[in-house]
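Dear colleagues,

As part of the handover before I leave the project, I'm documenting each prediction I ran so the next person doesn't have to rerun anything. This entry is a single chain, and its sequence is reproduced below.
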Amino acid sequence: MKFLLVFDFDHTIIDENSDTWIVKCAPEKKLPNELRNSYRPGHWTEYMGRVFAYLGDNGVKEDEMKRTMTAIPFTAGMVDLLGFIGKNKEFFDCIIISDSNTVFIDWILKAADFHKVFDEVFTNPAAFTNTGYLTVQNFHTHHCAKCPKNLCKRKVLKEFLDKQGVGYTQIAYIGDGGNDLCPITLLKKDDIAMPRQGYTLEKKISQLSQDLSPLECSVLVWSSGVEIMSYFKLLLKE
């Protein structure tokens, strides 16, 4: 009996968007209008590259960024859930597929000592240059018309499953955003989608049912990680 848990990061594991939270480091905690208005739909990573360049130009250093990022609160019940998974790792493979970046996720998980819970993290690669600027790149290229240019989570999940070659008892996908819908369409009838209550993913899933093209998998809406934990506790008892 082995379960695969697939987590989104922003607004799922943490209760904020890590990319917008970093703006707290900017002068007066805001970005100039021309920078804010430079975002084009589907090109978020390039936009964040410009944000990081602006922070670097304004002398924001790595340690200040790290202090700011590790102060982000976890979503309700997530600390309990991740603690439970960590204690039961023999039953759970656990991955993150996120549109954040490697530096932010690494900082946050390590500060809370949760990095060992996750087997792999798939997100946009980021690094500091020798001049102290944070840079970020697209995770991969893909041909999915539904997803942002830098990341199709379905492609990531499919490649992970192909590489694992494991028949999981169940795959659970835990997320909140519109870009979590594409990977969920990969799930089969024994699997479960777990959209966060009141967020875009829940609305998109209910829209599918109204359009008479419901998902193959079952759906459990959650508002706290404790609800997800209770579900898995029951499964392990069976």
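The domain at 3-16+74-123+146-236 is CATH 3.40.50.1000 (Rossmann fold). The chain has a mean pLDDT of 94.

All the best with the project,
I.
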